[in-house]
Amino acid sequence: MALSGISDPLLQEEEGESGSRQSSFLLRAVQIATVVSLYWFISITMVFLNKYLLGSPTLRLDAPLFVTFYQCLITVLICKLLSLLASFCPPSYLDFPSIRMDLKVSRSVLPLSVVFIGMITFNNLCLKYVGVAFYNVGRSLTTVFNVLLSYLLLKQTTSLYALLTCGVIIGGFWLGIDQEGAEGTLSWAGIVFGILASLCVSLNAIYTKKVLPAVDGSIWRLTFYNNINACVLFLPFMLLSGDFQTLYHFDKLGNLYFWGMMTLSGLFGFAIGYVTGLQIKFTSPLTHNVSGTAKACAQTVLAVCYYEETKSFLWWTSNMMVLGGSFAYTWVKGLEMKKIQEEPVPKANEKNETGV
Fold first, then answer.
1. CA distances from 107 to 74, 102, 103, 104, 229 (A)
2. pTM of the model
3. Which of 128, 157, 260, 263 lies at a 20 to 30 A Cα distance from 77?
């Protein structure tokens, strides 16, 4: 048939299906690579940008609460803008929930907002006092607090293997503190803020599940109410901390470059929530955690190179212990979840071994 120039329709159909599958696989691979790259870029850039705003010797702005407040304000404005645009655009172009201020919903979200304020504030304060290279180690106890709080609040036990991975993370954390002290760059304030940030991140995950029904399960509505509550609550804290007085004497208050950088940090703060959800959607929660661990490793290496720092072998070992422990924990929990899913569910009408 090939010699006579007559093609086989079955062969053509198989080749067409194979080509279609290959094209679909390539498209999916490109989408995943794009989303993961976008997550890495936004996350790493946001950390460096915040470090500049919080602790740059050229900027000299000692108002961390104001920086955090402004980022929350930008998120509120973006949510409201997208909600208005979505009301004029078809859902196929822009699918964003309708948002309006409801004091009853705001009060329901308030407990989470208090934890949320602690999380973002302690994150920024940790970054203010420690270097970008050590930032990941300083906030590395989130997994440990997840296990602890799951037991204390939800009565969920953890397997021995998962506990061992937590032990590796704690060991890396303490070794990192020791090595920072040996190099003369240790900030106990940064360490304390990092521990508090880790605790608040864990509490934030727990409270988010409890509060989501109040906003009809919409993450975007929760983001809006969380940030608008935070903006209000930040005002008295800024007054007590002296941030308003610092801003009054700040020499770059009328500088457009400064406000541009502040607004950019707010945009990145909003974008990280979006790309995080996007990465989970295109991959899985397990892959997202692995990607986050790999991103933290790349971020550490970039920070050491960018700031031209020299670190000891034990310092790098502490980082590898934290990253390795975090990866191992994710892997162990993934295997446990897979095992639970694969276990057969006994049928209600299934007879027992005695035949009764």
1. 21, 9, 6, 5, 9
2. 0.84
3. 128
